[in-house]
């Protein structure tokens, strides 16, 4: 296929999917950018798409214009001039701007009416024979029969942003007219489902609608007939309920009332081909409605990008589902937090595509194919969601994808009453899911529900993981997205030990930071890939290696825009063939991923039992080991006081500097990333409050017999910001004369001056290998990260040859930073100067 001009690229991308659905072969039936000399212009032009059906003589041509351009008679005349050229000579032409399609008779320039109607259509490949025969017998023909063609007229598919805008428009309209945002998603979904069924009927020979209404016909009615549109939609819903197997998704009564609402939604949906919208666009649009209508209801909705779903399928093995069905041992696959069905829809469609390829390749016969399809649709995929409207949408999505909706349930998966899976009966073979992050189930689960779980918790993710393990067959697999905090926090240590006891940890994979940002969710997440054991490993005797990996990119930016040139197919292929291959080097990397193997006994013996990539990073661990073997010391060994956090004075006691006695050092505002203490705008406390804290510390020391510094900072202390994104890791030496206290987010280190220079220690922790160790050791996920005093104590410090070398390094580092800041200031002054030229 030759290149397509920039001005018509988008249009061609929109028209080609339509032509493919009309039976044309994109590889053999078209030529692109065909040069032609027209008699009218005596100049060379280029035909955008020349339809020749793989033969020397063309049959019609397509002239494409920019989407922003309104079609006019000049566009028609240009196409017809090409058509009349001696080397082309076709009987009709198509002119399109990607939004509408117009067909014209080459001889008389009149608009062609297919079956007597001015519809935006191109004859199907099969109908083309009739059209050409008609035009051959009557070159002036304008009304051309297509054997009562009942197919839908052409409508454009929309890219992500435009489809989101369309859904936003409908949501806003429902909210404005109906004054009922709570039911907006469920009601809109029902009308969207009717439109999707209409397109399913248009694309599939074995599905018939039980009514004759079509959205594009209803959309042509004047607004004064909005009540007729409402009546038609309600009758369509009744017909689906009464006369098809899909009625269960529409039985919940529609709450929309105003005829104008029905009219506006129908008109909006009629303007789009959802068949030609990408899976990602449709999913994102659905997700917009979920976020908008469920806002504030704390359901923990986290929607999974298709690229991540594909990576997870590549990890567990893309052919596993179809192979199991063809072997007579079909898998039960469940997503217990299915949302609008993203995982299940993709898996269903992918399995059906594989079966079609096998049938086309004559690897299976028609009988085997039909039986496998039936099993895939009815007995393979299961999904649950706690929100009724969302679960109904998942059913709708599965119906449109291929009718696998039977096993979608509206239920709380964590309840003991859940029907799709159970903690008492293990029958799941593969769990692929992205459960809600950060939810508390304290209010939604009963005491009896909580008895299902061996490890007491009300955290949704902790309960989901336990139930996944309990509900999975021996030898079954679990691949789940997880909040990275579950892999590293102390509070989840017992859960990680539980996982190692009941499963083999095949892989733990760190996902890119932008994974969920397109959905406006800022969370650091990972994948866990587990295999259920036949029996629990009570004594943790199993010896094997687990793969710890990092995905550097999934092919899109934080905005959701695709990265130009990203080769997703290559990434997927390497995930499926190389990532888990432990036969070679224990450290391996490929296209946008890096992995290493860790002895599972190391995970068992580490008191944290952490699974996260940054903690087990082989390069970092190797350097720490080398430093320790060279006689270097840890922070615990360099600190002359117990490493501890400060204690925040009550905010009501804060005063301005003029009234204060002691500075309050806060992690976010008083420690700069360049190792300086910032006093501008700082909070202070009065001497009385300072003395009160001092007396309290003395009393605690008397009782415990242990030093209690509470929050007091002395000159020469190193203060380390120990919580928060963008804050954690900032470090400075307190070198001011007046007293100070640190708040609860700051760790205090009082270094042994005979072993280390405090400025070098601060610089090492904020800017050297110490900073890498800080990043390795902190726990939590985005927004809720912290570095505990115990973790600070474990940091190994490179002491260099002596204190003099430490001081020289620190002095040089700070000199470079001062120079950098000076140049930034100079650049700012230059920018101000440039702007003054225009004043």
UniProtKB/TrEMBL annotation:
Residue stretches making up the DNA methylase adenine-specific domain:
279-534
Q: Which reaction does it catalyse?
A: a 2'-deoxyadenosine in DNA + S-adenosyl-L-methionine = an N(6)-methyl-2'-deoxyadenosine in DNA + S-adenosyl-L-homocysteine + H(+)
**EC number(s) from the headed UniProt entry:** 2.1.1.72
Highest taxon listed in the record's lineage: Bacteria
Q: What class of enzyme is it?
A: transferase
The GO molecular function terms of this record are: methyltransferase activity
Q: Which GO terms describe its biological process?
A: methylation
Would the keyword Transmembrane helix turn up in this protein's UniProt record?
no
What the entry lists under PROSITE patterns is as follows: N6_MTASE (PS00092)
What positions belong to coiled-coil segments? none
**Keywords, sorted A to Z:** DNA-binding, Methyltransferase, Restriction system, S-adenosyl-L-methionine, Transferase
Q: Which residues form the Type I restriction enzyme R protein N-terminal domain?
A: 19-123
Which family, according to UniProt? Belongs to the N(4)/N(6)-methyltransferase family.
Identification of the protein by name: site-specific DNA-methyltransferase (adenine-specific)
